[in-house]
């Protein structure tokens, strides 16, 4: 209706203009017709004169002129001739019909006939005057003045006017109809085009045809400019000097995301409730890089965290909706626990996630195992988490942060149920090259699931590139490499690198820490390490990707190659138990224990072991004291998305002492070049690096550590979350504009307002 009214606003003036033009044109048309008729009447007059010439010559024989009079009277009975006058060669009016104007002389008639406007009024009717010479054999005998009736011309002219007006009106209606149809079609076309453009499909023809080929270059150019601007904006944001902290993240949520609901989904929960002594319930923080990074963000966001409730006493502390406020005693956010049966946990977590995806993505020389039953369980559990997200969503467009390889199918499942949600998926582990990824029997489904995300984040550009190449290899998707955007089945996913990090300690937290010397003394006392020993530490889960075995070989080689460290060096390895249900992990742990025992046998003595293996869970404060007590921290992952242990070590050393030895295969190596970067597979190189760290002058330690600290302080976890959420906010804005345009278009078509 609204479009129709809009079109009426355009059409009415058009009709008025057309009718006006018709009225202006009519006098001109009248004049033209008159002129044509005058010419015709002139010819007709000549014809009448010549056909009468013989009869006139005969009638002239009558000297009284009666015959001529009778002849003329007869002739004017012709309805087209009004009057006739007969003039002598001397211009004297000799005979005239009664209708001939009394006061008109021959000279007057001749003048009139010769003039441009040979018309005059006779008895209220218009006549046209023509004069013709009549000749006999003897020569000219006189002149015939004929007065032709013009009323029939006026009648015809009236008819012509009517036809003309009817024709113009008809034409107007046709033009109006055509205009309305064309306007409707082009409005729809433009609306469709604009919506497609804003959706990011643009007017560019999607795979399989369609679209407007002639507009392709324009649309491409337009979209490319928009993306350039967005990229520029994003670069400006990420390179910005502004410091990121919890307050800034909160401000971002308040302003750019207008307090929208944030839902985090991860397999691992941020706190586990376990049974303690007697009837007590204790709270434990799991050894997880994911939890280390996401928990402080969640405190700032005050949202809902959905995770698998895996603690022994978890069910005892939740409310009837399976929710528990966290962190303990503060209630900054709430945890919604999802319960899994042992069978589900076996298939989804141990099976598909940790025997399939984990080795597949880490390429750490452990074969992935893919079982159909695990895949079924993985799919079913992803669906259960999607249901939980829908149940927890307070609106149809929450911001959902999906974490890690446990949930590759979840983004598309959420997208199906909450199409307006902004889904940020972060993949915490590496993404392999397309060949390696290709061995997964469900590679297409995994990629399709992840492409349900609005934004898909990796730690490094390299992993993002591997993902895009995998999509390119196994799916029919359109990829804009320049802008890192994948379009699949009408939806876009922005693939970007967001290096994860840790929350930098506040001055109050730093002030509350025991000094490094105290930590050192305490550790020495606890483990019986002599005070003159140099200490290296490693802090990991008992996982084959962490390079713990290679590290032990390097320690052994150090003691062989640099015997001065024998009796003066201790290596403390914290190895949190993990996934012990799996044979691969149990065998790995046994191997580590065997190698540690061998080294201790070679270079130590009972109570003076070189390698101190601590295979228990350690709370964050305990780990922090260990970092502060150490001279060297060894991070030798064979392949790691990022690795946060190295960043935690750096953050703990406010005394700017200690040396970090870091694997080049950890994502963190790209951000922390002041560490001693090593190839963990090269035992000799790692042994040399440990030696170099042990002998490094204090000034060099300070310089390196100061630089490392400033990097981690700035690129902290709030920047990680802030960059992702800023991109999400930008995306949501774009979607909202797009929806508004779409709504406007639909209202335009249906005629509704609002
Ligand atoms: O490295 C990826 C990651 O999800 C880490 O965040 C976490 O440390 C680990 O894998 C998962 O461990 P778990 O299986 O014990 O949750």
UniProtKB/TrEMBL annotation:
Q: Which ranges does the record mark as transmembrane?
A: 6-29, 163-187
Q: Which CDD domains match?
A: GT20_TPS
Family matches, as Pfam families: Glyco_transf_20
| Keyword Lipid biosynthesis tagged | no
Fetch the InterPro entries from UniProt. Answer: Glyco_trans_20
**Please, one GO biological process term?**
trehalose biosynthetic process
| SUPFAM superfamilies in the cross-refs | UDP-Glycosyltransferase/glycogen phosphorylase
Record-level GO cellular component terms: cytosol
Q: What Gene3D superfamilies does the entry give? A: Glycogen Phosphorylase B
Q: Which domain of life is it from?
A: Bacteria
Alphabetical keyword list:
Membrane, Transmembrane, Transmembrane helix
**GO MF term (any one):** alpha,alpha-trehalose-phosphate synthase (UDP-forming) activity
* Family assignment from sequence similarity: Belongs to the glycosyltransferase 20 family.
Q: What is this protein called?
A: Trehalose-6-phosphate synthase
């Amino acid at each position: 209706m609204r479009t129709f009214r809009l079109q009426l606003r355009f059409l009415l003036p058009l009709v008025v203009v057309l009718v006006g033009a018709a009225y202006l044109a009519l006098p001109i048309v009248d004049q033209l017709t008159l002129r044509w008729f005058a010419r015709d009447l002139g010819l007709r007059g000549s014809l009448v004169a010549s056909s009468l010439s013989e009869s006139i010559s005969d009638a002239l024989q009558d000297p009284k002129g009666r015959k001529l009079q009778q002849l003329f009277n007869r002739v004017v009975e012709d309805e087209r001739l009004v009057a006739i006058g007969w003039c002598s060669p001397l211009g004297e009016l000799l005979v005239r019909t009664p209708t001939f104007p009394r006061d008109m002389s021959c000279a007057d008639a001749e003048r009139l006939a010769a003039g441009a406007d040979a018309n005059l009024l006779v008895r209220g009717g218009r006549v046209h005057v023509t004069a013709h010479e009549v000749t006999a054999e003897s020569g000219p005998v006189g002149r015939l003045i004929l007065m032709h009736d013009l009323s029939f011309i006026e009648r015809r002219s009236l008819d012509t006017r009517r036809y003309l007006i009817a024709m113009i009106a008809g034409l107007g209606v046709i033009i109006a109809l055509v205009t309305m149809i064309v306007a409707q079609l082009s409005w729809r076309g433009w609306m469709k085009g604009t919506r497609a453009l804003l959706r990011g499909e643009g007017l560019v023809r999607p795979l399989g045809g369609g679209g407007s080929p002639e507009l392709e270059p324009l649309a491409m150019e337009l979209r490319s400019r928009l993306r350039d601007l967005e990229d520029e904006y994003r670069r400006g944001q990420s390179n910005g000097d502004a410091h990121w902290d919890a307050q800034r993240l909160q401000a971002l949520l308040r302003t750019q995301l207008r307090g929208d609901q944030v839902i985090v989904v991860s397999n691992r929960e941020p706190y586990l409730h376990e049974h303690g002594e007697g009837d007590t319930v204790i709270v434990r923080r799991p050894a997880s890089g994911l939890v280390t990074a996401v928990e402080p963000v969640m405190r700032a966001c005050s949202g809902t965290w959905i995770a698998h409730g895996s603690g022994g006493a978890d069910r005892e502390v939740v409310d009837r909706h399976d929710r528990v406020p966290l962190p303990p005693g503060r209630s900054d956010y709430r945890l919604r626990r999802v319960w899994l049966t042992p069978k589900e946990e076996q298939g989804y977590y141990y099976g598909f996630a940790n025997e399939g995806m984990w080795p597949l993505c880490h390429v750490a020389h452990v074969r992935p195992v893919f079982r159909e039953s695990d895949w079924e369980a993985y799919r079913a559990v992803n669906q259960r988490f999607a249901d939980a997200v829908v149940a927890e969503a307070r609106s149809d467009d929450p911001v959902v942060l999906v974490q890690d390889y446990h949930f590759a199918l979840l983004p598309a499942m959420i997208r199906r149920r909450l199409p307006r949600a902004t889904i940020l998926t972060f993949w915490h582990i590496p993404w392999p090259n397309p060949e390696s990824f290709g061995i997964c029997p469900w590679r297409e489904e995994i990629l399709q699931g992840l492409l349900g995300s609005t934004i898909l984040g990796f730690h490094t550009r390299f992993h993002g590139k591997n993902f895009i190449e995998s999509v390119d290899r196994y799916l029919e998707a359109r990829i804009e490499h320049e802008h890192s955007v994948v379009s699949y089945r009408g939806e876009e996913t922005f693939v970007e690198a967001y290096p994860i990090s840790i929350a930098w300690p506040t001055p109050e937290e730093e002030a509350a820490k025991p000094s490094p010397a105290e930590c050192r003394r305490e550790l020495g006392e606890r483990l019986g390490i002599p005070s003159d020993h140099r200490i290296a530490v490693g802090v990991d889960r008992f996982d084959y990707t962490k390079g713990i075995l290679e590290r032990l070989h390097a320690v052994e080689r150090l003691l062989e190659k640099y015997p001065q460290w024998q009796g003066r060096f201790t290596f403390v390895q914290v190895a949190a138990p993990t996934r012990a249900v799996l044979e691969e992990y149990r065998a790995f742990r046994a191997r580590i224990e065997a190698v540690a025992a061998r080294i201790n046998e070679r270079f130590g003595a009972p109570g003076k072991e070189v390698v101190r293996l601590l295979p228990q869970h350690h709370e964050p404060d305990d780990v922090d004291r260990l970092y502060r007590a150490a001279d060297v921290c060894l991070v030798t992952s064979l392949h790691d998305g990022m690795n946060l242990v190295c960043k935690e070590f750096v953050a703990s050393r406010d005394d700017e002492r200690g040396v970090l030895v870091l694997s080049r295969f950890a994502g963190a190596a790209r951000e922390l070049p002041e560490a001693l970067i090593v190839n963990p597979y090269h035992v000799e190189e790692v042994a040399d690096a440990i030696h170099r760290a042990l002998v490094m002058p204090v000034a060099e330690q300070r310089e390196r550590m100061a630089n490392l600290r400033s990097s981690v302080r700035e690129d902290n976890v709030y920047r990680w979350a802030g960059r992702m959420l800023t991109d999400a906010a930008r995306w949501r804005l774009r979607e909202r504009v797009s929806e508004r345009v779409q709504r406007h278009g639909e209202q335009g078509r249906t005629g509704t307002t609002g």
